[in-house]
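From the shared-data thread, chain only:
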Amino acid sequence: MRKLVLMLAVGLFASVSAQASTLVIGAMVIDGTGAPGRKTAVRIDGDRILAVGPLKPRKSETVIDAHGLVLAPGFIDAHSHHDRGDYSDPAMPPVVAQGVTTIVIGQDGESDAPFAEVAAKFRMHPAAINVASYTGHGLLRERVMGTDYKRYATPAEVAAMQKLLAADMAAGSLGLSTGLEYDPGIYSAHEEVLALARTAAAAGGRYISHMRNEDVAFDAALDELLDIGLKTGIPVQVSHIKLGVVDKWGTAKDVLAKLDAARAHGIDVTADVYPYEYWQSTLTVLFPNRDYTDIEAARFALAHLTTPQGMLLGFYAPDPSLVGKTIADVAMMRGEEPAKTYLWLIQTAEAWRATHPDGGRAEAVIGTAMDPRDVADFIAWDFSVICSDGAIGSRHPRGAGAFAKVLRLYVREQKRLTLAQAVHKMTGQTAEQLGIAGRGLLKPGYKADLVLFDPERVMDKATVENPAALAEGVALVIVNGTVVARDGKPTGANPGQFLQRGAK
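Structure, as tokens:
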């Protein structure tokens, strides 16, 4: 098969580079609609899909025989941080090795700059993949409130944020993203978020949120998101939905029943999910009151939200030698109670941050906190789509493995999804839920973002110990009509585009 894949890749790359049409025959085409696969032919001309059906080769047309591999729309990562590091490797190997052709950034209330600036920078130095972006609530607060953000915004400040958001929406932002469990969003009033959601809704945008809480106050946080959808009419999406509290493990079906009831009442609520029982965030995220001297809060977190063994340092600027160690490991080294070590780690990181204001992140932690049964139930929900929440260079394997893991674990091994359902959740459904036009379906007129893969071989290889290990089983990845990876390896082509909401 490897020889076949390489032959196919060379032929297609040459034909597309010459702007000649290419006919792919012999593939099991899964078109992204959720319909079962069918043996048919696909013609690509330039950067678009020209036709799908029982097609005959044209004179001088390159013909590729896929020999039964699956041809699908390129996968869309609904929640990504792969832009961190400013695309230092524009080939994006961990992304394209999974068949991902578009990432959606500006998540968790974070975006680097106004939409037009981020888009212009990408267009000057494009990557192998397409990028779409939300506008981060945190950026709006930063630009209006500066360092004085640990309070509710005034009406005038909210109006100023709305003006900035409206400009981003006009430039093509997908909508508003919030990170209400993080600074500075955690200090916002519900009314502030409602006002901004109305601005996004008026422009035809969407709302996506890392909610105020994913553990003990999950229900109240979900109610807030649903209230935004009810009062503004905007589609609302739960970012990386999870139940990160031991006391709620096994109750995903109750959450989904609540979401289904909300949808029945007209609230367009959806979710994205990554296929892991552990998250990556900051050490501080489990302290909603932001009191890093509260030993009881630390003890509660390590008993109900995770465990000392389940909190592994993925990044720690004050002492990089601690990376890869758990709180339990560090507590043993220090000869103290894990809760005290937890507070010490945070306090040390905060002190480092205070003396390095431009130094970027101070710390990151991988926390084991979910039940695999809940993860599977969330992934199987009709209105959830797949995301990685991943980044290049992270200790979490999701950045290099999420999409391949879904195909391996939930399709091939557990059979929670059919292959067509999984592809739908990675392509057409994602494009529809996020407002990405002209992509996500294998359909005439759509952009030629395609992935050719072996459904029996595709698998994730990344682990916490080896988080950068590339996925296997993907033969070709095509972005805007150009091959960007063959047999899991980048070609060096960077045809990615920065996408605008609704633009085809």
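The mean pLDDT is 94.
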